[in-house]
Amino acid sequence: MGLSEDVIESIRPVQDPEMKIGVVDLGLIYDVRIEQQENAIHAEIDLTLTSPGCPAAPEIMAAVHRAGLETKGIDSVHVNLVWSPRWDPKIHASEDAQFELGIF
């Protein structure tokens, strides 16, 4: 498993506080890129939210940032809030998350 996958596994316990479903299972993590910066390993995480007006945005972004930093081998993390493509639970969420959301 590579560092990108390790970062995703570190983020896996982070939940959307309103839905009580993990952001990874919801499909809110669009990408994790690992970059070598001088003597440090940096992770760039692209995160979207369920809606642009999500009141928990700062809380979710901070939790993803903290979780990414807990990944062994990662020295720094930046979370990018992205809106493209627009999140669609029918496309992005895992089957388990879809079931929890009542999407069959």
Provide the spatial order of strands within the biggest beta sheet: 3-4-5
| Order of SSEs | HEEHEEHEHH
Rg estimate, integer Å: 14 Å
Q: Quick one: overall form?
A: globular
In CATH, the topology is named GMP Synthetase, Chain A, domain 3
- For the terminal residues, how far apart are their CA atoms? 31 Å
- Largest sheet descriptor: 3 strands, mixed
Q: Summarize model confidence as the mean pLDDT.
A: 96
Overview of the structural elements:
With 104 residues, this protein is an alpha+beta fold. The protein has a single domain (3-85), classed as Fe-S cluster assembly (FSCA) (GMP Synthetase, Chain A, domain 3), CATH 3.30.300. It has helices at residues 3-11, 23-26, 57-69, 89-92, 95-101; strands at residues 15-16, 21-22, 29-37, 40-47, 76-81. The protein has a 3-stranded mixed β-sheet. It has a two-stranded antiparallel ribbon with strand order 1-2. Helix 1 (3-11) packs across helix 3 (57-69).
Short characterization:
With 104 residues, the protein is of the alpha+beta class.
Descriptive labels:
GMP Synthetase, Chain A, domain 3; three-stranded mixed beta sheet; globular; alpha+beta; about 35% helix
SSE arrangement:
Elements (H helix, E strand, L loop, with lengths): L2 H9 L3 E2 L4 E2 H4 L2 E9 L2 E8 L9 H13 L6 E6 L7 H4 L2 H7 L3
Parallel strand pairs: 4-5
Antiparallel strand pairs: 1-2, 3-4
